[in-house]
Design goal:
Layout lengths: L4 E6 L6 H11 L8 E7 L4 H8 L4 E5 L16 H7 L3 E4 L2 H6 L4 H13 L3 E6 L3 H6 L2 H12 L5 H6 L1 E4 L13 H18 L2 H6 L1 E5 L7 H5 L6 E4 L7 H6 L3
Parallel strand pairs: 1-2, 1-8, 2-3, 4-5, 5-6, 6-7, 7-8
Helix pairs in contact: 1-2, 7-9
The structure holds phosphoenolpyruvate (PEP).
Length: about 250
């Protein structure tokens, strides 16, 4: 079964609401394509203005984070209902920056993934190793553990619709893209892991992105790999370069 590519921008903590509108308007004509789902994951305060600006285009607005509780005394957090009420369809879960700076654990990631599915929001579930882990040769063991915990109690039907972003931490924001072989090898390993947890049909349906300094030069080869179904793009998603990545062919 052919999987449609999904290319998502992660704006991180960039863009005020007015800057967000200007950026969506600038990128709108550059990201038109039938070949991929195009998602802009933006700061919570930018979601509504970005969505307004994106109307009539192929851009889908997503969120960068979400809490796993429904509502209440969790100052500063964003509830799933807040996202769905705004029309959000995708949310990044467990980005390495959330894990590192905000101490999100694999168990938190799992709770958020379950909550996202409960609210019909597609999670973009991030995983990936540190440079030290890669050098120690434990990349696949580590990533498999992240995946197994993230998918606990997730049904096969839900898993089929999920997106996984394999993002080696050493490649994020560093300008060091993993080699095509490294990226394909781990994405294939993740697909095999999903096959072990569920079945082959689920493994073949799930979309797996590569993320880590993707740019217009590296995207074509990365996206041509059999197990890489698109990219999660940080820095380059804030520039016209994103249009070139989205139109990689
Ligand atoms: C990211 O933020 O998920 C990311 C991959 O960033 P960059 O493309 O800047 O490395």
């Amino acid at each position: 079964m052919a999987r449609k590519k999904i290319i998502a921008g992660n704006w991180k903590m960039n863009m005020t609401p007015s800057q967000a509108v200007a950026l969506v308007n600038e990128l709108k004509p550059l990201v038109e394509t039938e070949e991929a789902d195009v998602v802009f994951c933006v700061p919570a305060i930018d979601i509504i203005p970005a969505m307004e600006a994106a109307k009539g285009s192929n851009i889908v607005i997503g969120a960068e984070n979400m809490y796993y509780e429904e509502k209440g005394a969790y100052t500063g957090e964003i509830a799933p209902d807040m996202l769905t009420d705004a029309g959000v369809k995708y949310v990044i879960i467990g980005h390495s920056e959330r894990r590192e700076y905000f101490k999100e654990t694999d168990e938190d990631v799992n709770k958020k993934v379950l909550k996202a599915f409960e609210h019909d929001i597609t999670p973009i579930i991030c995983c990936g190793e540190t440079l030290a882990q890669r050098e120690q040769g434990v990349t696949m063991d580590f990533v498999r553990m992240q995946i197994k915990i993230a998918f606990q109690n997730v049904t096969a039907d839900q898993a089929k619709t999920a997106v996984i972003a394999y993002e080696p931490i050493w490649a994020i924001g560093t300008g060091k893209t993993a080699t095509t072989e490294q990226a394909q090898e781990v994405c294939a390993g993740i697909r095999a892991c999903i096959g072990e947890i569920y079945d082959d049909a689920t493994a073949q349906a799930i979309r797996i992105q590569y993320g880590g300094s993707v740019n217009p030069a590296t995207a074509p080869e990365l996206f041509a790999q059999p197990d890489i179904d698109g990219g999660l793009v940080g820095g380059a998603s804030l520039k016209p370069d994103f249009g070139k990545i989205v139109n990689w062919k």
